[in-house]
Design brief:
By secondary structure, the protein is mainly alpha-helical. The chain has 2 domains: 185 residues, Leucine-rich Repeat Variant, CATH 1.25.10; 118 residues, Leucine-rich Repeat Variant. The chain has 18 helices and no strands. Helix 11 packs antiparallel against helix 12. The longest helix is centred in the C-terminal third of the chain and has 20 residues. It comes from Adineta steineri.
């Protein structure tokens, strides 16, 4: 996509098929990735990225060399190469996130790289080389977001907010798609840990409407990672209650999921369909949402439209069956009344919050 001097591995969101835990599916990993999935059949053809196949990347790196690259981030003349090398080697250095966070000026440099491309978003003039360079910086931010010692510090500093302008872009050119996908990978790295602290932080931001927008208009990979992020937010009780708290929020999510299901009829993706079904399944855990889904769940999920797509995916078939079973089960009156009362109290408590400019307030 760009010259070799600034090239990075192609973005590679990996979605594994794992039914355990609150989130269900395994985490996507976007950005200058090269990771492989536990589900090789799902990810066939995606593992051939330049970073993971480069033999040099398998060579152990000395701590002195890592320290040298981190120091070189501070100089504008050596920064681009340092970004590329650290991005390529980040999987091999266990505590790279800690070193970056506590090294003088390193995080500020990464944020500078992010901010420096803002002027090229509108109008959309971002070049492939610029996209590759900022994506190397984003890959290092994803490394920080993934590490247990730096994750809380990462969100306390509100660093994810610096990525939202990239998620809000609409250009379908490859540099912008690469930028969106890598930015989604940073958020995916946060939510994959199923930590309520992360979900509570994201709920104060615009990540839900931004994800819903990408779910409607992005590439298949971007749609998959964005849907995964929504699924992980729903997996947390705070996220589920937030989305089901008002009719506008629920209806927006249900509308987007419904449109995606209809698109799947034309060109099905088992990986993406899996996450759509998991979102519906989690929504059905809420009594009021379950009542609404009885009338708005797409008919093609109720018949055998996707049997061929899900033929080899027993986990997703099980989740779809459970979803349909949930919708057949009557909601106990006392549980429904209790949930409505709780939801009403939550609405009152949040009336002082400003409305979201993207319609999810």
């Amino acid at each position: 996509m760009a010259s070799s001097s600034s090239s990075t591995p192609s973005p590679n969101p990996i979605i594994t098929s794992n039914g355990s835990g609150g989130g269900g599916s395994g985490p996507p990993s976007a950005g200058a990735s090269g990771q492989t999935s536990n589900n090789s059949s799902t990810n066939a053809g995606q593992q051939q990225t330049s970073g993971s196949n480069n033999p040099a990347n398998d060579t152990p790196v000395s701590s002195e060399r890592i320290a040298c690259w981190i120091t070189e981030l501070l100089s504008s003349t050596t920064r681009e190469n340092a970004l590329m090398e650290l991005s390529r080697k980040r999987e091999k250095v266990v505590d790279l996130a800690v070193l970056l966070w506590h090294s003088f000026g390193s995080v500020a440099v990464l944020l500078h790289e992010v901010i420096s491309v803002y002027p090229y978003i509108t109008p959309p003039t971002l070049t492939a080389q610029q996209s590759n360079r900022v994506c190397n910086a984003l890959a290092l931010l994803q490394c920080i977001a993934s590490h247990p010692e730096t994750r809380s510090l990462f969100i306390q500093a509100n660093i994810p907010l610096f990525l939202y302008p990239f998620l809000n872009t609409k250009s379908s050119t490859r540099p912008f798609e690469y930028l969106r996908l890598t930015s989604l990978g940073v958020i995916g790295a946060l939510v994959k840990t199923d930590e309520t602290e992360v979900i509570n932080f994201l709920l104060t931001t615009e990540i839900i409407p931004l994800s819903l927008r990408i779910m409607q208009s992005g590439s298949e990979l971007s749609k998959t990672v964005a849907t995964f992020i929504l699924q992980k937010i729903l997996a947390d009780d705070c996220g589920l209650n937030y989305i089901c708290q008002t009719f506008d929020r629920f209806s927006h999510v249900a509308m987007v999921l419904g449109r995606m299901v209809l698109q799947q009829q034309k060109e099905a993706s088992g990986r993406l369909l899996k996450h759509i079904i998991r979102c519906y399944l989690r929504l059905s855990d809420n009594a009021r949402a379950r009542e609404a889904l009885r009338s708005c769940l797409p008919d093609c999920l109720k018949d055998h439209t996707f049997d061929a797509v899900l033929k080899e995916d027993q986990s997703t078939k099980k989740w779809l069956s459970q979803l349909l079973l949930n919708l057949e089960t009557p909601v106990p009156t006392n549980a429904n009344n209790s949930q409505q009362q709780t939801s009403g109290n939550n609405v009152v408590s949040q009336q002082t919050q400003p409305a979201s400019p993207l319609g999810m307030g």
